[in-house]
Amino acid sequence: MNRRTWIIRLAVCALAAHASFAASVASAADPEVVKIGFVGPLTGPVARVGKDLQYGAQLAIDEENAKHPTVAGKPVKFVLDVQDDQADPRVAIQVAQKLVDDGVVGVIGHYNSGCSIPASTVYHNANVAMITPGSTNPQLTKQGFKNVFRTMGHDGVGGVVAGHFVVEQIKAKRIGIIDDRTAFGQGLADAFEKGAKEANGNIVDREFTNDKAVDFRAILTSLKSKNVDLIFFGGLDEQGAMLVKQMRSLGMTAQLFGAGALKSNAFLQIAGPSGERTQDLEPGPALDKLPAAQDFGKRYKARFNQDVELYAPFAYDAALAMLKAIHDANSLDRQKIVDSLAKVSLTGVTGKITFDPYGDLIKPPYTLFQVEQGQWKSIKTVGGGA
């Protein structure tokens, strides 16, 4: 071997060793990717709500990653694994299984109770923590699954509170009820009816529709003939807006009252002047009066170039709770995260986040909103504390 060949080989070996060392150093420094699932309706009629929830969770993830987090002494990077359940229970089961197979350590979602309930079984079987920022049907947490949590009060409380309120505070004399026959809408209407009857309210009729309907004139004509002075609607905002427009076109002066779904920009845009005096009892405190929520709104708009639509703060807090559970457990083990989440205590944008043995929020607050001059205005908050 001549001197030139020997020098070339030596140089090649040195370069290879340097590259190997550099790669090993880079590998040691690169954070481990940790997937947290997000599921909501990202297409279809309520896609705007799903995107709002997604952005709320994403903001929490982004802010956490900016802190260069570690778990068990190793750097990690949290990534939101986003899936669309299309507000369809069958699709919800499919994407839940996909998230489990993707290796997520926890899930933020779903929005619709009709999706969360069947999907929760998939997560339960895989020991994956699930925090819903929007599903309020009481049956979700009555299944006895230790991995299921939510960051807002459920309808078994909120619906009953609403029932008492319309009788004892609004003094409604002849109440009509309409629900959309979804897990959310029917469950909410059932709870409202229970609360109204507990307060000795007079429910003169209960009608139902479906969550795809756009014409409510037949059932409204029936309610008008019974001289109702208040209609409770168990359903979502866009249908509620169409409902109140048709109420006014039929000459009805009855007040429309909802719980947990009417307060949105979409309701105001669709209902127009017909929406005046509509009231809605929403889970959570009066966010427009909380400095933390106002600051959240500014950060949200700066990041996504749009205002909060509806429930983004609840998704943000769900993500905060999941992240805290991971750090408290100091582990990426799914079961350890579930166990840690059950003991989580934090103050988020929406208030105190602590869970009872069923995974429900302890002492959740509710706020009454009313449409005044084309805007939702908070009237009063009931409940809350910890």
Automatic annotation (TrEMBL):
<feature type="signal peptide">
    <location>
        <begin position="1"/>
        <end position="28"/>
    </location>
</feature>
<comment type="similarity">
    <text>Belongs to the leucine-binding protein family.</text>
</comment>
<dbReference type="Pfam" id="PF13458">
    <property type="entry name" value="Peripla_BP_6"/>
</dbReference>
<feature type="domain" description="Leucine-binding protein">
    <location>
        <begin position="34"/>
        <end position="374"/>
    </location>
</feature>
<dbReference type="InterPro" id="IPR000709">
    <property type="entry name" value="Leu_Ile_Val-bd"/>
</dbReference>
<dbReference type="GO" id="GO:0006865">
    <property type="term" value="P:amino acid transport"/>
</dbReference>
<protein>
    <submittedName>
        <fullName>ABC transporter substrate-binding protein</fullName>
    </submittedName>
</protein>
<keyword id="KW-0029">Amino-acid transport</keyword>
<dbReference type="InterPro" id="IPR028082">
    <property type="entry name" value="Peripla_BP_I"/>
</dbReference>
<keyword id="KW-0732">Signal</keyword>
<dbReference type="InterPro" id="IPR028081">
    <property type="entry name" value="Leu-bd"/>
</dbReference>
<keyword id="KW-0813">Transport</keyword>
